[in-house]
Amino acid sequence: MKSVSFFLLSLLLPIFLQAQSIKNSLRAPAYPLITLDPNMSAWSYSDELYESSPRHWSDKKLPLLGVLKVDNEYYRFLGTEEIELLSMLPNGEDKPWEAKYLTQDPVGDWTAISYDDQSWQQGKGAFGTFENEPHSKTNWTNAKIWVRRTFDLKEDLSNSSILLEFSHDDDAEIFINGIQVVKTGGTGKNKRVKLNDAVIKTLKPGKNVIAAYCFNGGANGFLDVGLLKERTDQALFPKTAKQISADVQPMQTHYVFQCGDVELKITFTAPLFLDDLALLSRPVNYLSYEISSSKPRTVELYLEASPNWALHLPTQASSSSTFQKNGITYLKTGSVAQKILERKGDHVRNDWGYFYMASDAKNIQAKVGSGEVQKLAFRTNIQVKGKAKGKFAIGYDDVFAIQYFGENLRPYWNKDGKSSIEQQFELAFKDYDLVMKKVTDFDRNFILQYQRYGKSYAELCALAYRQSIAAHKLVQAPNGDLLWLSKENDSNGSIGTVDITYPSAPLYLYYNPELAKAMMNFIFYYSESGKWKKPFPAHDIGTYPVANGQTYGGDMPVEEGGNMLILTYAIAKVEGNADYAAKHWSVLKTWADYLVEKGLDPENQLCTDDFAGHFAHNANLSIKAIMGIASFGYLAEMQGKKDLANTYLSKAKEMAKEWEKMANDGDHYRLTFDKPGTWSQKYNMVWDNLFDMQIFDPKIREKEIQYYLTKQNRYGLPLDSRETYTKTDWILWTASMAEDQATFEQYVNPVHQFMNETVNRVPMSDWVFTDKPERRGFKARSVVGAYFIKMLEEKIKSKN
């Protein structure tokens, strides 16, 4: 596979680094490097930047290699020298493959090379349910399938390193030349198993066979197999720089390295200003460097990226090139197939559009070719004198970003089709000095401001900032609405999920309420257009990046109704008017009336806290319903609808009194109304405190806050009495209901400690255990925007 690389050649001149932002002492679970959108982001999963290759949050590797040559010494500071994988037998996502198959029990040893499969049916892989498995080439809807993929080898692989790549839904058994290599349950996509010596010794020239069985326990079925070969080239840059520090700020991640007696500073910058939509949506990040030394040294800098950056799988065919335009040198790579907006789902990446690296430096060489050849060229290149500081730009042009109710939408930066990726890079280089000054000022002021609520709080929010933003895509709807669409990362891949919007919202309410509206516009449209006919909001509008209507399997009536009503009122409070609510008054009233009827004692239905199972009579969900009704009442009051306001506010207060009787369990309040001795975080009550709504007796919050302190573990407050795990977003909301700073920090500090000590090196998880430093699930989700609830409280109360 070809890679793309820059050689930046320079003679070092002494440089003195400018003062930077206040250092973040948090050892991040993963360090954000490139944060463009849900499918184009990269993180370092290790403490040292050179310990591992950057990864997408789905764990797919995005090889990016950086080496600094100082005189005749080479120091690797970024990434690792990845073993290249060559496709021996492409799987069905890359190219259909021929096979024999049966859907009823075969007779005899069907896994053997010599087995006679002439009576079996002929088909193409992959095999799966057409309706929900887009990469299926043969429709498989039965409970069981047996598949034989025979292939001829031209070379002896018995001394090679070979991997089986497979996908399965559900249980699978896979054999190579009669030897079992996989026996697994559940489901998996693009899993890899390195073959042992016994199997590899059978891979000789001539006929070979992969035999696979799969059981579909219900819903969708899928089976795909292929083989990969590892290249075993010797590492050319084994020596690493010495990392001095790593520091995550809201918009930047800083690294400092020692390369002999030369100091190298590398900074990854994403200028994500939420009040500047043109800059927010510009699909370009920076990688800048500064070098300093006590005496002149001749240096060269090498940066290499793999085509993986523009692919879902490294085995997909790609095309790479280099060109110059208006003083900028570009490296470009993308898939050959370019199937725009065809791939959807959770743990997937774009495999359409084009990935770019660019530089405006004069002393630059850009090359496309074998990574090994380019590395060798770097080791023998003629050096050129130049400056000891500069930058690269990294970007992505996805051409079309979202399919919205049947219409393909361009990304916001090119919403009218009149811009180009080259123009965006030109702007990025032209604005660089101004942007970097703004970013540095923002980062410095951020930590200073947030430290008012404790060092732990400031550092958590600094790490959460880019993660939440990068889980969204900005587009403009055909009717002109702004759409800030989330992807439900590492959960189910839904787009525009309302119960993801709800916790995420404080970040956007604080910095730009137009983006909070943009997280709701599509849900209003879905109902108001008649496409969604139920008397409560939809859960989502599709599976990212295809937003053609809800694809989630169940509704969350009380949950989503309360979410939308509360957030509409939150927008009104931030803006000081109810104009946004007035635009959507009819549907808001429909949702409020549903909550009046169904909200006090919720039926057995899905909600966002049902991790330990669905249950009825949920006390915290009831609070959300009551807050939703109260929000509608206050929105009516803001519009001068006094009678309507009195009706709904009176109803909310009446329900709150009833709630207190039903949930009271002595020194705390119950998880469900019907189960004494249980408890749960009542984080939905945060809005009563935040907006001074005066619906619930304040003593309820005070009692709960004190009780929770008796239930805390080393890494935080459990979600409820059923399990030891928690949701960190809800802990921050619970913490903000505390009346004093010391108590607030008692809840926040354990979350900080978890992130600092967790053994799971992935972008911040919001679903974690409180008694051990392990995540229960989830990562890289936008819900960490919830952490900004304390700053939103400050903003709201400063207006009053």
Which geometry do the CA atoms define?
A: globular
Quaternary structure: single chain
Note the main sheet: 8 strands, antiparallel
Structural class: alpha+beta
Secondary structure tally: strands? 35
Mean pLDDT: 92
Give me some keywords for this one.
35 strands; alpha+beta; 19 helices; 800 residues; single chain; six-stranded mixed sheet
Explain how this protein is built.
- With 800 residues, the protein is an alpha+beta fold.
- The protein has 19 helices and 35 strands.
- Strand 30 and strand 31 form a beta hairpin.
- Residues 9-19 and 379-387 have low confidence and may be disordered.
Question: How are the SSEs placed, and which strands pair?
Answer:
Blueprint: E1 2-11, E2 31-37, E3 40-44, E4 64-70, E5 73-78, E6 85-89, E7 97-102, E8 121-125, E9 127-128, E10 138-139, E11 144-153, E12 162-169, E13 171-176, E14 179-184, E15 187-194, H1 197-200, E16 206-215, E17 222-230, E18 242-248, E19 252-259, E20 262-269, H2 277-281, E21 284-293, E22 298-305, E23 318-325, E24 328-335, E25 354-359, E26 364-370, H3 371-379, E27 389-397, E28 402-404, E29 407-409, H4 421-430, H5 432-450, H6 455-470, E30 472-476, E31 482-486, H7 498-511, H8 513-518, H9 521-528, E32 546-547, H10 557-575, H11 579-583, H12 585-598, H13 619-638, H14 642-663, H15 686-690, H16 698-709, E33 725-727, H17 728-735, H18 741-757, E34 767-769, E35 775-777, H19 789-799
Parallel strand pairs: 9-10, 28-32
Antiparallel strand pairs: 1-22, 1-26, 2-3, 4-5, 4-22, 6-17, 7-8, 7-11, 9-17, 11-16, 12-15, 12-17, 13-14, 13-16, 18-19, 19-20, 20-21, 21-27, 23-24, 24-25, 25-27, 28-29, 30-31, 33-34, 34-35
Helix pairs in contact: 5-6, 6-18, 7-10, 7-19, 10-12, 10-13, 12-13, 13-14, 17-18
